[in-house]
Amino acid sequence: MDWGMENRLSQLIQYDGRCFFLPIDHGYFQGPTHCLEKPGETIKPLLAFCDALFVTRGVLRSCVSAVGAKPVILRVSGCTSMAGKDLANESVTTSIEEIIRLNASAVGMSVFVGSDYERQTLENLASLVNICENYGIPVMAVTAVGKELAKRDARYLALSCRIAAELGARVVKTYWCEKDFDKVVSGCPVPVVIAGGPKCKTELEVLEFVYDGMEKGAIGINLGRNVWQNAHPVAMAKALHAIIHEKATVREAHGIFEETSKKAA
């Protein structure tokens, strides 16, 4: 692996081989998202617990301090919205010059396997890899499903992850599934991080699926709404950090959440 590529990946994936990415890119298709209306204020108390931010260039420039910043995974796909017909109809939004100018440690984009825009989004990924590899910039592929959450079974996720890796993604972000998630990870030759998806009903539910996913081979998480939409986001981030980097059990992490949230109250 080229030195530049290895160095950038080491900024994201920590000494223990694990990672906690905090996505705040939801506005690129959802607009002003609940609890993310002012992204800079939302993330300020959470930065101590995450390893990198997944963010668009607009929010990065306008809301994230450049001084002492966390490494950045730059969201570089978009051009669709919740108001449109199909979230899968994405394009690459950001040039390599912009990626370098913003000092991104990596870039991320969505692929929609099985959708009407499968070829388009996979071609977007392949083209992005072709460009970014020339500059030692890792690409993270996001196995998105748009509004069709029923697709999140192991067979579909394994297919999507493997294709993304075959096209050159250095990291793949995908959903956890209750059955056979270990097969999703083992079938992907590059590191897998777990997406959060819609907000869960309880903190315990979040901690349980993250712990299970890590036990089955994922190297980390890319969770947003289940952190900053929680009533106690700092407590949630601290509990997740404990699972990721301290190998805490679900019970231990839940204890951390409860203790931290009580102190905050």
Secondary structure elements and their pairing?
Elements: H1 3-12, E1 19-23, H2 27-30, H3 39-43, E2 52-55, H4 57-63, E3 72-75, E4 77-78, E5 91-92, H5 96-101, E6 106-111, H6 118-133, E7 139-143, H7 154-166, E8 171-175, H8 181-186, E9 192-195, H9 203-215, E10 220-222, H10 225-228, H11 233-246, H12 250-264
Parallel strand pairs: 1-2, 1-10, 2-3, 3-6, 6-7, 7-8, 8-9, 9-10
Antiparallel strand pairs: 4-5
What does this molecule look like?
This protein has a single domain, classed as TIM Barrel. Helices cover 43% and strands 15% of the residues. Strands 1-2-3-6-7-8-9-10 form an eight-stranded parallel β-barrel, surrounded by six helices. Strands 4-5 form a two-stranded antiparallel sheet. Helix 9 packs parallel to helix 11, helix 9 packs antiparallel against helix 12 and helix 11 runs antiparallel to helix 12. The longest helix has 16 residues. The N and C termini lie far apart (48 Å).
